[in-house]
Amino acid sequence: MENSRVRNTTINSMVALFSKVIVFIMQFICRTFFIKTLSTEYLGVNGLFTNILTMLSFAELGIGSAIIFKLYKPIANNDKEKIKTYIKFYQKAYIYIGIIILGLGILLIPFLKYIVTDVPSIKESIIFIYVLFLVNSSISYFFTYKKSIIIGFQKEYVTTIINTVVVVIQNIIQIIILLVTQNFILYLLIQIIATLLDNVISSIKANKMYPYIKEKEYTKISKIEEHKIFKDVKALVLYKLGFTISSGTDNIIISAFIGVDQVGLLSNYTTIINAIKGFTNSFFNGFTASIGNLNTINDNKKKESIFYQVFLLSFYVYGVISMCLLVLVNPFIEIWLGQEYMLSKGICIALMLDLFLDGLRFTSATFRNTMGLFQKGKFVPLISSITNIILSLVLVKPLGIFGVLIATVISKSLVALWYDPLMIHRLKFNTPFIKYIITHFYFVVIAIIDFFVCEELISLIPIQGIGGFLLKSILVLSITILIFILATFKMKAFKGLLDKIKYIIGGKNESKS
């Protein structure tokens, strides 16, 4: 079972990595053509409406995790009737969610004039553009329940491959449209068709892999269990709504207080970061079903050991990426678009801090959900988001974009980062929480030291342009990896992680660590 978990995690994560590299390259090329053929105002509208629809998607944030959690045990036992019961329930729930998001999105239309305060000089209707974004965001919910069974069986690589092929075709067509017509509406319509195609193909594939989910006869979920699921769903909606608001209000506040053109400039940075987040999230999401499977056993010591191995791995991945972006993102923007598109170093620091801290939070968030701890701490992120909005409104005038972004970092650090690991250690591991605090603090200190070392060393490189950028990239990457490994190789989690890597490469059995 342990070897199966490692194998499935490896396949999912490697496919996800390869997929995200391809998707990132295609989206980067597509965005370059977008910037060259359309104005900065279109960039701002694109970033703003993406943010608003992210906010509206909170209606989905509970049901998916709650249902997939319910699937882990019947999947482990190959209980097809129980799997079918949950999938049918999931289907109904997501139809309601799609309708709710459409309804909420339509209700928001009269308030758009208060969000887009300086109407951009574009020929298309702002409301019509918003409706297209809304449709694209909503249609997935009518199909996504089929993907849950593929994910639950630890075969997420199937949906990843489908998505990659569709996105590549989408971006190629969008580039042609931008070059030939410079038509933003056609650009968005292709995006909607691609989203629909991705979901339909995934649904057909799920039906072929697990044909019993198409059977019309099934056991309906009991009222008691339905009540329990909805209780968990409500808790998860509250929990994840907080994080959605924290990340989703930044562009809205910047648009309202500073201007939609500044949202456009910031969106170049957030596009790079979101692409990297998509890359890393896909890699780590490959772990989720395996961690869920692990949490069906009663060995708390084993669970804690895996927890710290994943925590160490997340530090390596997010630490290296955050450090490289922090040092190199402005030189990259300068080469890519020019100096007029660059933002201050302080803004870069705030963006990368948020990325790094979110990365460190992955392990505890994943264990929390796969352990079914939905009711615990459900109000914590909401408190964090309220703190974030208040701080953003206070800091936006004196500090501008930096004030809004650093407010997000401060609010998460004060409230949200520590509660999940505290709960997991006390309720599940039955071990002292101080171990996590010390480890987390140690990781942050290592990252700070690494930043100053990298900044000092690249300042010694006089070469400019693409050659200088490549040289700096190699230096920052090498130095960061070296410092991180030297600082952590004596940890027990390092040995356990190394054993798993040896197993993946050589097929040898792992140790018990």
Task: Provide an overview of this structure.
The radius of gyration is 23 Å and the shape is globular. It is 81% helix and 0% strand. The chain is mainly alpha-helical. It is built from 20 helices and no strands.
The total beta strand count reads 0
The proportion of residues forming helix, as a percent range, comes to over 70%
N-to-C span: 15 Å
Q: What average pLDDT do the residues reach?
A: 81
Low-pLDDT ranges: none
C-alpha Rg, in Å? Answer: 23 Å
Judged by helices, strands and strand pairing, the structural class is mainly alpha
SSE sequence, one letter per element: HHHHHHHHHHHHHHHHHHHH
In this structure, how is the largest beta sheet organized? none
Strand content: under 5%
DSSP helical segment count: 20
- Tell the overall outline: globular
